[in-house]
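Input for the complex:
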Amino acid sequence: MAEFYNNNSFLINLVGINAIMALSIYITLSCAMLSLSNAASMAIGAYTAALLTQQAGWPLWLAVVAAAAVAGLVALLLGMPILRLRGVFLAIATLGFGEVIRIIIVNTPALGGPEGFRLNAGNRSGVVTGLEIFGTLLVLAYFFARLKGSRMGLAMDAIREDENAARTMGINVTFYKVMAYVTGAVVAGIGGALYAHLRSFLSPGDFGFQRAVDILVFAVVGGTFAWRGAILGAALITLLPEITRSVPVVAGLNIKDHPEIFSGLILLLVILFLPKGLLTISLGLKLRRPAPRTLEKEASP
Amino acid sequence: MTSHVAETPAREPILTVRDLTRSFGGLVAVNNVSFDIYPGEIYGLIGPNGAGKTTVLNILSGLLTPTSGTVTFQGHRIERSPAYRIARQGVARTYQNIRLFAAMNVLQNVIVGQHSRMQGTLAERLVFSPRVRRQEEIARQKALALLESVDLAGVAEEPASALAYGNQRRLELVRALASDPKLLLLDEPAAGMNAAESQALGGHLRDLAVQGITLLVIEHDMALVMSLCDRIGVLNFGNLIAEGTPEEIAGNPLVIEAYLGAEE
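Predicted:
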């Protein structure tokens, strides 16, 4: 067991961090907001924490808290103007925010610029242990479990189902959307801070468009209606390259070098056949609900 | 002794609408509409399709802002307030084409209706605070009692989308009642109902008025409107063309013309 962990620790820990990232997008998706700035918040968290432990000499956990706070604060300032946007327009605006963050990092020598930022893994605050990563995941999972069914959780569900009807129930839709967006950014900031200390090397390219899409895929593949789905999807997609490693070379194409072929295929299959995600299978009949049929029916005069 | 003390306090309207106008581009959907609704009253708003009735309701509930005019609810101007604030002041509504939270279960729909009356923060819930648990239990019991009153307690755990059409209408009504509204806006509550069902609905609405809830009802079912409402306002092409008791409205030539067309 210990030997298995030692041999695969990076991958196992990456599952934990990707699960945290998936949770960070789950909360905005659960309010029907397609926000793709989680990679950017992850970058803010990663670089903030790295600077604090490496140059200010802060202990890791304190740097993680600060990274989460900075990511949340940036999201708060950005969120108020852009959360008026809906659907694909919100997605475009948040992707744009991600590009802005990436370009700022590339052009800031103190952050290593395009060369990247190397962390000194030699001292204690330079590395993160698996226990710390999975402990954080556990705390976050607990938060999401308690959110479900709470006054705030129900309000978010209602916003997802029908925003205007939610408004006329006394729900402050704007407030909850900003809350969801900021919470997502805080969680992504935590994920980024841990990632920095797992990877020991940060490059602006790590937090680009591909990362933003990967995070979305984790949540969509797992299932966006329950937080467990996000964790399941992250685990599956992260481990996928290991599973496809044994696939032989086909027609001159070495498939094991292109795991995104499989993640793309899985995403396609899930969207086509399990629009609510893989979690629908694992929980089986309990979650099967009749399709909404009468709701769309117009009242006959 | 002063001799000019009023014997009975003048009845203040709970809702005052003055010169309400709303246009969409070049179309004036609601034109200079004014009316008062008094506490405990059942006020009917009728008119042909496209007369602007739902637009009035959308303005009153805060989903639309008027182009001009004022709305005063219990002494507070609300025509520019966001919908959630208006709801918290005690205005609830239902929709013409039922808008439930489809994927949530029946009980949760009614609990969400109590949103503005519930307390307790997520932070307290994270530490399993007994206060929050008590609040949640009270909300659950109240929701179950409301569902019981319309015979829906048996399907409390079903998703709202699984209910039959008539039951969805009843669920939407109790979801609105869950916020303890003072003014309830109903947009065609009897749509799609047969005569017996709409009669039962009429009885239920009268009970609500007796309990002190003021009702504003948009309805096409004339038998229901005439038997239910204390006063009726008639909209045609955005204008309030008549107002009065059911008897006055039934005999008003303008109203007959609006519904049946002018006699040659």
